[in-house]
Structure formats: C-alpha cells, structure tokens
Amino acid sequence: MALPTANPGFRLGCQESPAMGLRSAPRLALRRPGAVSGHRSRTGRGKFPVASTSLDDYLPMRSTEVKNRTLTGDITSLRLITAVKTPYLPDGRFDLEAYDSLINMQIEGGSEGVIVGGTTGEGHLMSWDEHIMLIGHTVNCFGTRIKVIGNTGSNSTREAVHATEQGFAVGMHAALHINPYYGKVSTEGLISHFEAVLPMGPTIIYNVPSRSGQDIPPQVIETLSGYPNMAGVKECVGHERVKCYTDKGITVWSGNDDECHDSRWKYGATGVISVASNLVPGLMRSLMYEGENALLNEKLLPLTKWLFCLPNPIALNTALAQLGVARPVFRLPYVPLPLEKRIEFVRIVEAIGRGNFVGQQEARVLDDDDFVLISRY
C-alpha cells in the first residue's frame, strides 16, 4: 500500500496546519591544515605535496587532554549494546522525553551500551549539530549508568576526525566508525582513514558492506588491532568472518540480530550490537548471557526476521509507534511498513508476550492516517 507524502507537519489523511519547517543547522566547519597561518606546503621532486602542519595543529585539542577517559577494556567487555532509535516530535525535532524513556527501558532491560545516531538512530538524517547534541545529552543524563558510543563516522576523513573529537569532548565513552561509503577506497586508504580517528579514544569499526558498498577485509582489521584504542569490530558479514577474528583474539560483536545467538555461543563473538533490543532488551540480554538457548533464539527469530523485512530502521520505527513508545513520526525518506506488516507485528507481540516488550500500552495496528511524514527537519 503506497503512502502519500505529507507536507511538513501534515498528518496523512488530514488537513492540519503545517508546523514550522526547521532547517537543518549547517554541519560544523573544519579548519583546513593549509589555512593555518605561517605554514606552507613543501613539495619534493617526484613527490606529492606534503602539508607541513602536524596533527596537533589540525585538532583544537589533543586527545590526551580529554578528562575521564574510558578504557578500551570497558568497551570490549560489553555483550549487549543497543543501536538506539531516535524518536521525533510532529515538527521533526527530537522527542527527548520519548528518547530518555527509551534509554531508561534499555538500562532496566540490561543493555550495557547504546549506539547514538547510528543507522538505527538515523544519524545520516541529522546535522552534525544535532548529532553531537544528542551524544552530549545522552552522556549527561545516562553516562554513569550505560556506555554511550557515538556514531561519528563519515565517508570524509576530515568530518570523521572533527565529529569524533567533538563526541569525546562532550563525554562519549567510545566512537563507532564505518568505512568510507560511496567513494570506494584502497586498502591503504581504509587503514589511513581509521588511523586518523583511532588516537582519540576507544573505537569500534563497523563493517556492513550492504550499506557502505565495500567490505572491510580482515587485513585492515588485523593491521588496526595493534592500536590500544581499537576496541573491536561490529561485523555483519557472517559467522565465518566472526570466527576469523575471534581466532586471532580480536573482539567482535555480531551486527545481525538473527545470527547473534550462534555468533556468540558457537563462533566466539563477545556479544551483539542489536536493533531488536530496542523492543525486547531483557530477552536479548538473556540470549547473550545465559548460555546456548536454542528455544529462546527460535522464539525470537520471527521478530528479528520481521525487523529486517525492509531496510532498517523502517520496521523498528513502525513497531515503537505501535507500542506507544515513540510518536508515529517519520523523517523522510523513511515511511512506515505497509498495513499487512503492521498487523503481523501485533501477532508477533502476542506470540512472544507483551510483557517482554518495552512500553506499557497494548500493541495496536496503526492506520495510514496515524502517521506523520516530515520532509523538512
């Protein structure tokens, strides 16, 4: 069923007054090395130009100056990390009340860390100002109760460096970094990209070729594993790749909810960075902590399969709205699942048990008219 696109603030099927459109704040400007006063580039015969600025000239503050740093070992020990959803108000701004409630549900359910502004949290639909604000807000409100891992990755090394430094400056415990997407790079380029951000603090590298368009080969991860701040890998390729790393003593989290049980107990993964734990954090914790449990894994498979029937986070956004945990507001280009899938979710909740899911309201099937699609945010 095709859903019509609403104007900013319009509810589907209704004629309401549009909310004020909010323009995204410009991304934070980065100081170019060549713009530093008193520095020039030097060129050797047959060589590429080499900027004479050092890393310390480029960064506003050294990573060693960040107070209360998290040890890498504090990150590698985490078994359940939630890639947390970002809820919205009808005008497209963050719904921080709903967000805080969802984080509390994660803590109460046993999640040990949250990825802020990742794929599930729609960081790619945020300005950098929004992104860093949400990381800082999460640290300020919950940083003593749960590890806050900020997604500060980018296909631009310059942006990744700047955002990561800002994330650590506002107190995040670790950074999540994807490999440069769209513009594919060489193996040496991948290594150099990650080497630029690793000095700042504990880092998880995220390998998801279906989104980035390029696999991070084991050679890259093995090269980077010698860095003290290299916490590990969120790996979405599958069990054999997980085993490749665990055999070498490299920390790995499964990035696939439907595979995480076997990755954990048969292939040596430390745990999972999970989408499903937004909905059932207690059950996902049991899956990661209580030994092999084929019955629980089988019970959860219909949910984990449903969550990825269309690209994440479409299904999760729909589910949280139907549970009353988040408003049924979507930042475009995301739109809710079709009606038959919304009905299927309610049946899955009934089969698993409503008490295992977050929130207090009964799961209900929302109509098309209940959803608000925002094109300006």
Could you characterize what this model shows?
The protein has 377 residues and is an alpha/beta fold. The protein has a domain of 219 residues: TIM Barrel, CATH 3.20.20.70. 36% of the residues lie in helices and 12% in strands. It contains 14 helices and 12 strands. The protein has an 8-stranded parallel β-barrel with strand order 3-4-5-6-7-8-9-10, surrounded by 6 helices. Strands 1-2 form a two-stranded antiparallel ribbon. It has a two-stranded parallel sheet with strand order 11-12. The longest helix has 15 residues. The protein is globular, with a radius of gyration of 21 Å. The chain starts with 40 loop residues before the first strand and ends with a strand. About 17% of the residues have low confidence.
Keywords:
single chain; two-stranded antiparallel sheet; TIM Barrel; 377 residues; globular; 36% helix; alpha/beta; 8-stranded parallel barrel
Helix content: 25-40%
Q: So, the CATH homologous superfamily of the domain at 72-290?
A: Aldolase class I
User: Oligomerization state of this entry?
Assistant: single chain
Number of strands: 12
Tally of individual helices: 14
Tell me, what's the shape? globular
Which architecture of the domain at 72-290 per CATH?
A: Alpha-Beta Barrel
Uncertain parts: 4-67
Mean pLDDT: 87
Note the beta-strand portion: 5-15%
- Output the CATH topology of the domain at 72-290: TIM Barrel
Report how far apart the termini are: 25 Å
Q: Specify Rg, calculated over alpha carbons.
A: 21 Å
